[in-house]
Amino acid sequence: MTYTIQNDKIQPFIPKRVTSLAMLTYVAAICCCNILFASHVLPWQWWFFGAIEVLGFFYFANRLSKGWFYIKPMHFAQKLFWTAFFLRVVWVVVSYFLHQKWTGTAFAIDAGDELYYNEVAQYAANMMRNGDWNIYSNIQNYSGGAQFSDMGYPIYLTFVYWIFGNSIVVARLIKAILGAWTVVLMYKLASRNFGEQTGRMAAIMCMLMPNLIYYCSFQLKEVEMVFLCVLFVERADFLLRKGKLAYDVTFEYDEYNHIVSTVKNYYDETGYNLIKTITENFDITGNVIYSCTKEGNNVTDNYYFYDDKLNLVFNTSCYKNGYIKESEKSE
């Protein structure tokens, strides 16, 4: 990581010397491979696309990490989404016509799984239009018994086709939206954990990553799987840091494996600063007989008393300032 001083601020960005070296290394490696394996020289179109992917990734990673430095976080996220969406839409459109030229279909050369997903989903969508909503059975019957673990994407694609009339292009444009959203989620997750500028660099690289753009042009589940995984991690991290799930619990057991006591630690929105600790002791029946709450300099001790039928009779609370309060509670 490189830092430069600009307008009295420290500006981290992806250094040009690293990206330039990476681009030169790629060009040299491709040339060496084609010289050493001259009988298996890549067709010119693969040279062309490879150069755009690799050189474009490193060039714009450097330029955008510097050029977008002073954009406000909200505007940065918007710019990130729309740029990522634009790149993916362009590739969806370009690849569609390339596939038409090379294979005569909307699918890539030697397409395997995506042909299967497309055919199964179109069949199930047509059955839905005819009033048969038993999607699972229809997919099973058409595919000859698909495994349960591989049913999620065909079911999802079935609903997309049912809504949008078996449109392959619309299904891929939805992938472009999910791919762009994934980039924004990556920015939020990385900036929340490693700082704003690290998050921006990670998001820009995610936006430009060739494979994440490439798979938007296929009827495959990779884009949706990556989106769901990143969404889950980002939301879980958000909840933990907002304190909604920011606590841990420690249990202590006796020789009979009964819980004797628990210690619960609650943290603030960062997930690191301790706010409150609650300690509870239990009797053999599982009733709380003592609890202690520590919150800052305040400490509260609570003692609980039960009758023969294990109903709570009353409890006594003792605060740090010595104030004692008794209250009766009937069950």
General description of the model:
By secondary structure, this protein is of the alpha+beta class. The protein folds into 3 domains: 1-70; 75-241, no CATH class; 247-328. It has 10 helices and 9 strands. The chain has helices at residues 16-36, 44-67, 73-103, 113-129, 135-143, 152-164, 168-194, 196-208, 210-214, 222-241; strands at residues 2-6, 9-13, 247-253, 259-267, 274-282, 288-295, 298-306, 312-319, 324-328. Strands 3-4-5-6-7-8-9 form a 7-stranded antiparallel sheet, with no helix packed on it. The chain has a two-stranded antiparallel ribbon with strand order 1-2. A hairpin with a 5-residue loop joins strand 3 and strand 4 (259-267).
Quickly list its features.
331 residues, alpha+beta, seven-stranded antiparallel beta sheet, two-stranded antiparallel sheet, 9 strands, 54% helix, extended, disordered N terminus, disordered C terminus
Question: Can you describe this structure in just a few lines?
Answer:
The chain is an alpha+beta fold and 331 residues long. 54% of the residues lie in helices and 20% in strands.
Tell me the layout of helices and strands.
Blueprint: E1 2-6, E2 9-13, H1 16-36, H2 44-67, H3 73-103, H4 113-129, H5 135-143, H6 152-164, H7 168-194, H8 196-208, H9 210-214, H10 222-241, E3 247-253, E4 259-267, E5 274-282, E6 288-295, E7 298-306, E8 312-319, E9 324-328
Antiparallel strand pairs: 1-2, 3-4, 4-5, 5-6, 6-7, 7-8, 8-9
